[in-house]
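Q: I'm writing up a methods section and want to include an example of the input and output format. Could you take the sequence below and give the corresponding predicted structure tokens, formatted cleanly so I can copy it straight into the document?
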Amino acid sequence: MKNTKVCILLASYNGEKYIEQQVESFINQTYDDWKLIIRDDGSSDNTMKILRYFSSRDDRIEVMCDDGENLGAFRNFYRLTEYANEQYDPDYVLYSDQDDFWFKDKIEILLHTIKTYEVETIDKPILVHSNYQLADQNLNPMSINNNRDNVDKMDKQTTFNNLIFQNNIYGCTTIVNRLLIKKVLEKYVICENYDYWIALNASWHGEIFYLNKILMFYRQHETNVSGSHLTRKPYYKKIFLIFSELKKGSTILLNNIIVFDYFRKINNARPFIIIDEKTQKIVVSKKIIRFCLRNRIKKNTIHETLFFYFCLFYVLLLRKAIN
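A: Here is the clean output for your methods example:
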């Protein structure tokens, strides 16, 4: 597998407490022919000092030199992906959080797996994601069940019809090929998380494969940037947040819940939600409601489905629906 261009993309932000362990886990990988690219999102702690230390001692590690603007997790990872594509044109990309810990054979196993699927699935964007072990802040395994041992169940959860309601693919567990990288960068769309955007593109344009093998510690602590099992808000609080945003006429929330353009095909090449740029009035297609109702969602996504319906029907109560 030598001469295969592999990039690890890490977005950092105030990660001084755990980022050193994570970078060390890359250095100790059994597959060592990789390039680590890090973009810091304007940290105010010692994160950059730690990263400069590593980059000065290992030429495989590069810290992006840009304006250091605070972009948020989605835009930070998107910029990393753009940079890696432009500067290195990698064959494969792995995404990393700053506070996890990779087992030493993670890259080797994921690389072998995706190459195997590429032989079976020629000229298609491919995403492979693996299992993980939840761990506390000291990397002690936690007894919380992550419900990822059932391969058939995982495959069903990552179909497109399920992904539009809930993303069950964590970016830190993935490897993606060059064709998927190109699709992800074709257009810029704000999603709730970068891994959601990657998963939607993989499901729509290519293939998603699940590897039921634990390859990393997914660290849980109170300051996870993207949230954790310890910091998730109760669902009723999310509903009140949605209600509050919709009352203000916010369209940002709708952008985060669903990616409009994917429904153009379903809705006869018309967007299912039209937003008037001047008035910000929202018009919703009845066709998408029928689509949602036809596609039953599994039990584990029922809360997310309820959020979506809550938003959608609240909008319908206030706006005129398309015939």
